[in-house]
Amino acid sequence: MKTILMVDDEEKIREVVVSYLQKDGFHSLEADTGKKALDLVRGGNIDLVILDLMLPDLSGEEVCKSIRQFSTIPIIMLTAKVTEDDRVQGLSLGADDYVLKPFSTRELIARVKANLRRAHDDTLLAETISFKGGDLTLHPLKHEVFKNGNPVALTPNEYKLLQTFARHPGRTFTREELVEKVLGFDFEGDVRAIDQHVKNLRQKIESDPKSPQYVITVFAVGYRFAGGESA
């Protein structure tokens, strides 16, 4: 049974969401402050966090950034902020999805399920796949990535993006294709959201993110993975 942490300082919102989660077979935990949320995540056994941005002690952005320092569990942000800059900021901090307030609880639960599916999709064919003489190595069964022998902490969406590229080195993907494969066919945001995930991934796997050797931009189309020989 998957455990979902619902973080919101409004008790009525927590009660409604938790009720729907439990009806769908999830175990749920609640937090009304950022500090409580961080303590629960650090305690382990949390599979996904639903995180409101407006909390009484820490902002949701601060909580998200702190979680990403020690965990890659999926994070869905709840927010009344609607500008593109707000969404990009959340994604740059490591959020996996955005749901705008007021929201449909059924839609939120659907997004919880979609993010959990993506987070646990480990379906590369090889046990180990490496690029450029071992500069970048994936261990799909262990859900691990190494850069020059050092472990790389990727968010679920970043890992899914890298996995999609690693399956098809040399293939050019449109942004729409990557959104469907990484964020899901039910994603309703701007397809440019994938650009932020690519930027985050480059920061972690490229020796020089400003001059990428792996994730190459294909002008007016999307992205191509130039992995070279793999084994």
TrEMBL record:
Positions of post-translational 4-aspartylphosphate modification: 52
Cited CDD domains: trans_reg_C
A Pfam short name: Trans_reg_C
Keyword annotations: DNA-binding, Phosphoprotein, Transcription, Transcription regulation, Two-component regulatory system
Annotated ranges, domain Response regulatory: 3-116
Classification of source organism: Bacteria, Bacillati, Bacillota, Bacilli, Bacillales
InterPro entries according to UniProt: CheY-like_superfamily (IPR011006), OmpR/PhoB-type_DNA-bd (IPR001867), Sig_transdc_resp-reg_C-effctor (IPR016032), Sig_transdc_resp-reg_receiver (IPR001789), WalR-like (IPR039420), WH-like_DNA-bd_sf (IPR036388)
Top-rank taxon: Bacteria
DNA-binding region range list: 126-227
Name of this chain's protein: Response regulator transcription factor
Keyword presence, Phosphoprotein: yes
Record domain OmpR/PhoB-type: where: 126-227
